[in-house]
Amino acid sequence: MDLLALAIFIIVLYKIVYRYIDNKLARYNQFGLKDAELVYIDDKNADVLLDHEYKLCAKPDFIYEDEKGFILTERKMAKREPTLSDIVQVKASVICARNKYPKLKRAVISTGLGNFPVDVKSSSATLFSEIKQYHEICQAVYQGKMVTETNQSHCKSCRIKNNCTRSSQC
Q1: Between these two residues, 43 and 6, which has the higher pLDDT value?
Q2: Least confident span in 66-80, 100-114, 132-146
Q3: Looking at residue 67, what is its pLDDT?
Q4: Residue 49 and residue 63 in contact, taking contact as beta carbons nearer than 8 Å
Q5: Measured between alpha carbons, how far is 146 from 158 in angstroms, rounded to an integer?
């Protein structure tokens, strides 16, 4: 019985020491991702990621790969929690990125307050159904059509808010 107790003690001690050493030797990046390799960065040479089925295009800030698959990350400099438009942007980016990185099942929005995971485990069809109404609004605005929208909380961060043709001003 003493030999069994000693064996269990040694195994537990080994696991504790192994985890400690593993965490000390692991490389964490600024997004808290352990041993992740950068595979895509939004710079002037980066490809625009396209999805023809949903008529989307995106250039996410970063895509990393680790042992669990790919992780899309969006960096926002403001000290705030992610907004609805940030989450919609990430979901659209995930849909586009899956054409090149099919194992993409995780996404993070990093702000001045920290890293916020976004649930993108669903299929691209499900993700698109979640953002479809916002995509239709964006398409109409970019085409110069008049759009009436009662919920204009996303207008603050819109790229074309100063030239918007909405019938109700943002």
Answers
A1: 43
A2: 132-146
A3: 85
A4: no
A5: 16
